[in-house]
Amino acid sequence: MPALGLNLATYRVLSVVVLLAVVAGGSAALAWRIQGWRYAGQLAEQARLHSETLDQLALSAGTQQRAEQDKRLVLEQQLQAIEQVHYRALTDAQRDQGRLRDRLATADLRLSVLLDADDPRAGCAVPASATSGGLVHAGSRARLDPAHAQRIIAITDAGDRGLIALQACQAYVRAILH
After folding, report:
1. Contact present, 59 and 160 (Cβ < 8 Å)
2. Residue 1 above 50 pLDDT?
3. Residue 64: is it exposed, middle or buried by C-beta count within 10 angstroms (0-12/13-18/19+)?
4. What is the rounded CA–CA span in Å between residue 29 and residue 16?
5. Who has greater pLDDT, 101 or 25?
């Protein structure tokens, strides 16, 4: 060893320096490992919290979706009930209009209008008398031609259908808005 020009004390110092470097390197590696474990633990905790948050959001969304489905079901049931009432009213009106048309066609029923007795343009004196099938409250009345009566019934039928449809639309809008 003297060929290198180093003495025993120098070797000892070098050995101590190398040993300290190895210990320091090991300590640094150990510190990096500990820090890595801590970082991995933090990442795992964040992943767990993220997973819990997602689970809560999914549960909340599921609850909200069920509530919306329940609302929709209730609304559909209300609308179905409204439609049944509308259909029943429409068929009742059609049945009543059909009966009225039949009674007019068989002369079982005759439509008449009240004449203004004070109107000088009327020019005709129609006696105020009661007919079979109706009451005359007062004043002169004139019987309508059956064809005209049928047209009047058709007009009132269309008006009844329009009113029933309007009521159905209003009920629909009320159900939707509530």
Report:
1. no
2. no
3. exposed
4. 19
5. 101
